[in-house]
Amino acid sequence: MSSDRERNGLLDWIKAIGIALILAIVIKKFLFEQYVVYGESMMPTIENGNRLIVNKIGYEITEPKRFDLIVFHANEKEDYIKRVIGLPGEHIAYRNDQLYINYKPVAEPYLNEYKKQVPNSNLTGDFTLEEITGGLKKIPKGQILVLGDNRLHSQDSRHIGLVKIKDVIGKANIRYWPVDEMKVFDGLEKKE
Question: Per-residue pLDDT tens for 24-60?
């Protein structure tokens, strides 16, 4: 009788571990993923070595929003993290370090601290959507324009072109490492 109890107890443990492993695989594959940042293209918002939680399910039911921090497949070997600037149907331009969406100025509060670090210099060089796309006046459906916050050192839509929404892995929701810099991202982060 004792051996039956031990066998049942062992079987219960094996079932519990099996269920936990299956849940972990499902969560990682379909819901959330850990992402380690390499490079300085998103500084000062996100630094080299930061670890993020990326929400993979959100864009299955909604579209990216302006200023979201997203991770996407830049090519077959690399994933990038950038900020969504332009959405389908919009015209984007930068002049004198000012973002213009559909020819109207739009503030970028998350860049204020960084702009102070490079006084008397433009953080974002002048460009228009037409220059990036070879003449398109509006971002096509199913695509977005992305930029890194560290505009002087970022490979983004100015270099790689528009990003297909189908290539977006998900939205960076939480920086969990380093622990003392843990933060939930809402898209309009301001440097404290």
Answer: 666 566 566 778 888 889 888 888 989 888 888 877 7
Tokens of 109: 């509060």
How many angstroms separate the CA atoms of 72 and 164, rounded?
A: 9
CB-CB neighbours of 168 under 10 Å: 22
Taking the alpha carbons at both ends of the chain, their separation in whole angstroms is 64
pLDDT exceeds 50 at position 185: yes
Q: How confident is the model at residue 107, as a pLDDT?
A: 94
Give this prediction's pTM. 0.79
Active-site position among 3, 28, 29, 41: 41
The whole domain housing 121 covers 31-184
Q: Do 139 and 90 form a contact (C-beta atoms < 8 A)?
A: yes
Q: Which CATH number fits the domain that encloses residue 105?
A: 2.10.109.10
Between strands 32-36 and 143-147, the pairing is: unpaired
Q: Does the active-site annotation cover 166?
A: no
Out of 4-18, 32-46, 62-76, 78-92, the most confident range is: 78-92
Which residue, among 147, 57, 58, has the nearest Cα to 101 in the 3D structure?
A: 147
Alpha-carbon span 174 to 116, nearest angstrom? 26
**Active site residue: 15, 29, 56, 82, which one?**
82
The answer to whether residue 41 is catalytic is yes
Residues 33 and 56 sit within 8 Å (Cβ to Cβ): yes
Kindly state whether residue 150 falls inside one of the protein's structural domains.
Answer: yes
